[in-house]
Amino acid sequence: RKHDFVTVADLSNDQVLELVQRAEAFKHGASIQLKRPVYAINLFFENSTRTHTSFEMAERKLGMQVLNFEAQTSSIQKGETLYDTVKTVSSIGADIAVIRHPKDAYYQPLLQANLPISIANAGDGAGQHPSQCLLDMMTIYEEFHHFAGLKVAIVGDLLHSRVAKSNMMLLKDLGAEVVFGGPDAWYSDEFAAYGPHLSMGEIVDQVDVLMLLRVQHERLNQTDNQSFSQADYHKKYGLTLERATHLQKQAIIMHPAPVNRGVEIASELVECPQSRIFQQMTNGVFTRMAILETLLRAKNLIQPTSNLSAGADKHVINY
Ligand code: CP
To answer: Which residue lies with its CA nearest to atom 4 of ligand 1?
Structure first.
């Protein structure tokens, strides 16, 4: 359905570039007016700081009304299913539900049920994190103004990372060269189809973009968690102060955050000149405005008089 946003797999290159362009336009002052009050609800069944607050910021900047919802105090605790929860908030009048849930592809039965409410995926298990992926594309685009030929390394806990899975798909489609790093055990055939596994030494010498991932202890089993050494991981797979000196001058460091400082990246590098980690968070608001705008447009909820074009002319996209 055109009024849902659940995976980057459905997006053409042109759609990705249009979303990046709209996010840039919002960053430069574009705005929309709604035809009637529009209600959003953010249903987060996994912890979040960035995605939750930046979706809420995006909703408010677009003029939407945001309904309160806390999973911990909701009737989910009494055993209500996700389907019944979403059908309930739809019946109450919510127009858009932004959902993060630990189950991979949790959204499939909701889409099949064809509820009138729009679904925006804020992360499903180890499946997809499409809004993070688009804000990452926006951040790369702001730096390089193209994607073709860029060398991008995705390093760390690949296996459990919905960010890695979403980003490798779009980066390859957009013409970037993808390589991977981190423990061998987390590099499976799924990743081999997108690019080779390299050592950290090879990666820091070659890449334009170094995308580090958090080790997701909440998704590791007990044995792996017990045997995990932060110092050992940092030494073998982390961006250490020494390794950072080998990065090319134009290379940028990215991380979806939250960051385990001193594990996947030395604490001092989180805010270093080559880091774009906090720029990614800023871009997250504008990217989520662009995503929500497409859902509102599909539902014919935007006034034609909106100031749609501010700043957009400065951002002709090449890829
Ligand atoms: N990057 C990201 O998804 O962060 P949160 O888990 O804090 O939303």
So the answer is: 50
The CATH topology of domain 8-129+283-306 is Rossmann fold (3.40.50)
User: The whole model's pTM is what?
Assistant: 0.94
Cβ(259) – ligand 1 distance below 6 Å: no
DSSP 5-64: B--GGG--HHHHHHHHHHHHHHHTT----BSS--EEEEEESS--SHHHHHHHHHHHHTT-
Task: Check pocket membership of 102 for ligand 1, CB cut-off 6 A.
Answer: no
User: C-alpha 226: how far from its chain's center?
Assistant: 29
Q: Which residues contact 47 (CB under 8 A, 6 or more apart)?
A: none
> CA–CA separation, 40 vs 43, rounded Å?
10
pLDDT of 148-175, one tens digit each? Answer: 999 999 999 999 999 999 999 999 999 9
**What's the complex ipTM?**
0.99
pLDDT at 313: 46
Residue range(s) occupied by CATH 3.40.50.1370 in the chain: 8-129+283-306, 130-279
Where is 98: in which H helix or E strand?
strand 96-101
Which residue matches tokens 């930046």? 54
Which atom of ligand 1 is the closest one to the Cα of 49? Answer: 7
Distance 276 CA to ligand 1 centre (A): 15
* Distance in Å, CA 47 to ligand 1 centroid: 8
**Cβ of 214 less than 6 Å from ligand 1:** no
**Atom of ligand 1 minimally distant from the CA of 47:** 6
CA 309 to chain centre: 25
Mutate to test the pocket of ligand 1, among 45, 46, 47, 50 (most ligand atoms within 8 A of CB): 50
Cis peptide before 304 (omega within 30 of 0): no
Q: CA quadruple 114, 118, 124, 129: dihedral positive or negative?
A: positive
The verdict on domain 130-279 having CATH code 3.40.50.1370 is yes
Q: What is the pLDDT of residue 318?
A: 52
